[in-house]
Specification:
Elements (H helix, E strand, L loop, with lengths): L1 E6 L2 E6 L3 E3 L2 H20 L8 E6 L3 H11 L5 E9 L6 E9 L3 H4 L3 E9 L3 H12 L4 E10 L9 E6 L1 H5 L3 E3 L12
Parallel strand pairs: 3-10, 4-5, 4-7, 7-8, 8-9
Antiparallel strand pairs: 1-2, 5-6
């Protein structure tokens, strides 16, 4: 069985042997882990209680909504999309580009918690941090479900699981519940 691996707007073919399925049960444990870490940071005053969540599209949408429900339904959730291609020419760029910015009024003077599914190179989160600080965000914290330590140039403040050097070397593709092909429908 073969499936497509989507990475930075280009496609690579991967075999099923390189795939690790993230189940909904695992996802709930990862979200609970992030919730506990962020709650601890709030108690230690490393992060203010009234923060804004910014979900990184598309992988961060699901965890961001789940975490917002764990914290407080009144939390604001915004989206940012950052891709490795030029939205005009649709060609791969060397650096990630913000293709859907966060509204400045949503983050100016506020503490932000950015949520994504995983760190790969780390360049996307680095670019998003620059974007949010340029918009006037007071403080920006990052949470990811999976973190590729040693490969990523960016280390998030909170992560639920560290991807091992062995998994990185084997080029394991982590498939989240929202990525499963059988769930996709043509419109």
């Amino acid at each position: 069985m073969r499936f497509l691996k989507i990475t930075h707007a280009y496609y690579q073919t991967q075999t099923a042997a390189n795939k690790k399925i993230i189940t909904n049960a695992m996802l709930e444990r990862y979200n609970q882990n992030i919730f506990e870490q962020v709650s601890g940071a709030i108690k230690k005053r490393k992060l203010r209680k009234n923060f804004v969540i910014v979900a990184v599209g598309k992988g961060g949408f699901n965890p961001a909504v789940r975490l917002a429900h764990l914290f407080d339904d009144a939390l604001s959730v915004y989206a940012v999309v950052c891709k490795y291609y030029d939205p005009v020419t649709h060609r791969r760029s060397e650096e990630p580009q913000i293709t859907q910015p966060v509204p400045a009024e949503a983050v100016k003077g506020k503490n932000i918690l950015v949520i994504d599914d995983l760190t790969d190179s780390g360049n996307t989160l680095r670019k998003i941090r620059e974007h949010l600080l340029a918009l006037g965000a007071k403080k920006v914290h990052f949470a990811v479900l999976l973190h590729k330590e040693g490969q990523s140039v960016f280390t998030p403040h909170y992560f639920a699981r560290k991807i091992t050097a062995k998994e990185i070397k084997q080029d394991i593709w982590f498939e989240f519940p929202w990525e499963k092909k059988k769930n996709k429908q043509k419109v």
